[in-house]
Predict the structure of Response regulator.
Amino acid sequence: MALGNAQAAASLKDILLRRRVGVFTPANNRDAVEMMLDHSYNMLVIDEHFPDLGGIDFCRFLRLTNSPMAVAPVIFGIHEPNQKKVIAARDAGATKIAVMPFSGASLIKAMEDAANDPRPIIQDTSYNGPDRRTRSVPPPGGVDRRSKTPTSIDRATQMKILRGVKS
């Protein structure tokens, strides 16, 4: 599923159809939500310039829904990347960030990386998205300051959710 402007969506669709990947391109956030009510998608590509709501807010909304797409990998396309935009996309729950416009090779690489990402999905009041921790070291001073451990959905469970398998 690709979300964004018409020209980028058409180019993206051509690239993916050649690889036999189904693509749906809603015109705005209302169309996207309607499509998500009718279908389940196992990966999403969101353009930072997504109409109406904006890409960051739509990504955040998506991660907060009670649907299979809440755990789906999200590739977030940024037109003019800078540190502020990248951090905002990560904080919204993006799995991978790619520079737009996509080349065929860069899009396929981002999709493969996102599909093969083994990180669990963290669901908490302040953050919903892939676990961003890259090291497994004890917290400073050896004391975990969190009042509660956030919910974590492991990769196997994510795949079951995306396939529609009931636990």
Summary: The helical segments are 6-18, 29-38, 55-64, 83-92, 104-115, 155-163. The first strand starts at residue 2 and ends at 3. Residues 40 and 68 are 7 Å apart (CA to CA).
